[in-house]
Amino acid sequence: MTDKQIEQVIQAKGLTAPRVTPADIEAAIQSEHYFTAGDGYAGAASLTVEEGGTIEPPAALDLLTFCVLVLDNGFTVTGESACASPENFDAALGQKIARQNAVAKVWPLLGFRLRDKLAAG
Q1: InterPro entries, from UniProt (predicted)?
Q2: Which of 10, 51, 65, 107 might form a disulfide with 81, Cβ 3.0–4.6 angstroms?
Q3: Contact status, residue 61 vs residue 38, Cβ threshold 8 Å
Q4: Residue 63 and residue 86: Cα distance in Å, rounded?
């Protein structure tokens, strides 16, 4: 089930107690950033490469996509997506999967935040 489908079931059952919703997750995301490990390698190497030099990251690094989500309080979470076959690499799909994996890490963080508020009364 997708998050949207689960949300529909929760609403249909009338479960109205305080909880974290998909809208809460999206509202907590201040910005999102994508890059491959190859991009990171090239960026770091560019600090030391001689003028006019070239930077060639290992090809496998271009198959690993990262998503960094910056949350409303400045905390960051990451998600990754790795492609096994170079022929199947699709940047947009890799970004989507990496974002889903990052968002999965936001749920427990917001759950903890809500539970703290509930416990404080």
Answers
A1: Phage_gp49_66 (IPR025915)
A2: 65
A3: yes
A4: 7
Q: Alpha-carbon distance 74 to 96, whole Å?
A: 22
Looking from the CA of 87 toward its CB, the CA atoms found within 13 Å total 0
Structure token pair of residue 119: 């416990």
Are 99 and 74 within 8 A, CB to CB? no
> Residue 117 has which token pair?
């508020």
CA 76 to chain centre: 9
| Sequence-ordered list of residues with C-beta below 8 angstroms from that of 64, at least 6 positions apart, any chain | 36, 37, 38, 80, 81, 82, 83
Whether 82 and 63 have beta carbons less than 8 Å apart is answered as yes
- Burial, 31: exposed, middle or buried (Cβ in 10 Å; 0-12, 13-18, 19+)? exposed
Whether 82 contacts 95, CB under 8 Å: no
What pLDDT is stored for residue 45 in this prediction?
79
